[in-house]
Please model this.
Amino acid sequence: MEFSRLAFYALFFMGIVANAQVSPDCGNAVPICNDTPVNGGTMGLGIDDFHGSSTSGCLEQALSGSIESNSAWYRFRTGASGQLGFNIGIDTSEDWDFALYKTSDCNNLGDPIRCNFFDNQDENRFIGVGEDPTGAPVNVQFEDWLQVAPGEDYYLMINNFSNNNSGFSIQFSGHIFVTNPYDALDCSIVNNLLGPPISACGNDTVVLDATTTGAIMYNWFMDTGTGFAPLPSEHNATLQAIASASYRVEVIRPSGNIISEVQVAFSVMPIAHPVSDDASCSGLSVYDLTQKDVEALGNQPPDEFVVSYYGSMTDASAGTNFLPNQYPAQSGTQTIYVRVSSIDNPKCYDVSQSFQLVNLETPILDFPSEAYLCHSTSGVTIGE
Model:
């Protein structure tokens, strides 16, 4: 689904205050503390955040004379220590670049600590830091994991040379979300009344809360791609979002009204279909796990869901330590756990299926494989 571009902007007119969700400028970078849904894409570079520089890490000036072409800036702050990464979900036909800066000051970006400028000739679905969640053994558009500590500020710039792009999503990853699932990232930096963009699953309940001291009325609006339309019967401080859309609230106050917007995207909850056991008696050294994708997906489209495989139910549920697609098979019998997840939102997943992988070696005979009997003999002993 293509989502309209949001206006999580900041303006001051008649006491109206808002904040922006796709920003081409570092100074107005969108603060985030969780996964973001697919946005409406980037168009233009705003101001030159690199002040005429010809390079920034792996990034170089385009024909326009600027490092940025069609950029989006985000910022986040860590709330815990551990391994952190992120996946940027993109259209396989598009080429995106990114640079990550460890700084709290847009006027002092320094060199990026992670940077990727490779083209997408391999038609990858993800670029980022950490590991490709599809299990691909090699993806040159991924950089090494980060090791972070609490209170570190980061700015992320994502860029596309074409303004005719379909946008992207951001999905955080890493072991830090196993040890600190609720405070790995610091949400105190998000100053939008309705919060950061929301990625939800089809069965989730999403309640938007605009409760404001001194408010005398609330007016709610929804935009599904044709502009904001009022929700006539909705005037409470909270609203349950039931569809993928941009939502706006107008908070009426004697001291000045407040306007806030947020994007909410619901992803379909996948179903993991039964997967048959597999066996080999020839001592396989490598087993191609992707041959099970068709079984696990059933009739679900492979361009909307990704299948990954794990050595334990714990790893499958957490989405960590996935097995490589070209899996070095172990001898004996092993249970392989299957996870089917949404490409747009990896938190929408099903891990209800598994299969047995039996890998046996053909025994080596230590005695002759043929024996001859004569009429005068009563039998022959085979082996020891």
Notes: Residues 1-20 have pLDDT under 50 and may be disordered.
